[in-house]
Write a structure and sequence with these properties.
This protein has 201 residues and is α+β, with helices and mostly antiparallel strands. The chain folds into 2 domains: 1-17 and 181-201, no CATH class; 20-176, Jelly Rolls (Sandwich), CATH 2.60.120. The protein is 20% helix and 33% strand. The strands form 2 sheets. A 5-stranded antiparallel sheet has the order 2-3-8-5-6, covered by helices on one side. Strands 1-9-4-7 form a 4-stranded antiparallel sheet. Strand 2 (29-35) and strand 3 form a beta hairpin. Helix 1 packs across helix 4 (186-200). It starts with a helix and ends with a helix. Residues 1-18 and 196-201 have low confidence and may be disordered.
Length: 201
């Protein structure tokens, strides 16, 4: 009977139900760091709202407004989570353990700015990254934009111009409000309960 009740509880708290909430937050800081010869990368700070901490994250998308320029070539971009705290004084070599920024390849998403057309707005799925912070207790140090090609270190001047200032970026997070559903244990406890039920079954 206890297992049955737990199964009902876990199923009832699945993301996407009526208790789903949405919150937006703006990119608050953008810092371009440059290697003298190999181009530049962009660091983005977009602090997550406190209300999503230990909630179930349904989805998260970063919407970036690009410069109104027509790129002459495709720009392949990787967005990766930053692992080290940084400030507006950050440079290519500081405060990092590795030059160019300490990045988590496991929390990275690729996207493309197509060539030969007007660049406008692009959306990047960052659900995995936001979930790691909100549900997993990972520190929120922001995100970095860098070339997707592992043989390239940074963006050239044309690519930087197309990407623009990036300061108008918006992060849209949809989450399940667990307290509103009467559950007080938080996302980590709920996921642990799910795993326990799966093992029993």
């Amino acid at each position: 009977m206890k297992q049955f009740l737990v199964s009902i509880l876990v199923g009832a708290l699945a993301p996407g139900m009526a208790a789903a909430m949405q919150v937006e937050t703006q990119v608050s800081e953008v810092k371009w760091i440059a290697d003298r010869e190999d181009g530049a990368r962009a660091l983005l700070s977009c602090p997550l709202p406190a209300e999503i901490n230990d909630q179930l994250i349904v989805s998260a998308h970063l919407e970036l407004s690009l410069a109104a320029l027509t790129p002459t070539k495709r720009i392949e971009v990787t967005l990766a989570a930053i692992e080290t705290a940084w400030s507006p004084d950050a440079s290519w070599t500081s405060p990092w353990r590795s030059a160019g920024g300490d990045l988590d390849d496991a929390l990275a998403e690729d996207f493309t700015v197509a060539g030969g057309r007007q660049a406008s707005t692009i959306g990047i799925n960052v659900t995995q990254l936001v979930r790691a912070v909100a549900e997993g207790g990972r520190m929120d140090y922001g995100m970095a934009l860098l070339p997707a090609d592992p043989l390239r270190v940074g963006f050239d001047a044309e690519e930087q111009a197309v990407l623009g200032s990036l300061t108008t970026g918006t992060l849209v997070v949809t989450y399940t409000d667990l307290p509103a559903l009467g559950y007080r244990g938080g996302a980590q406890a709920l996921r642990a309960k799910r795993r326990s039920v799966q093992r029993v079954e």
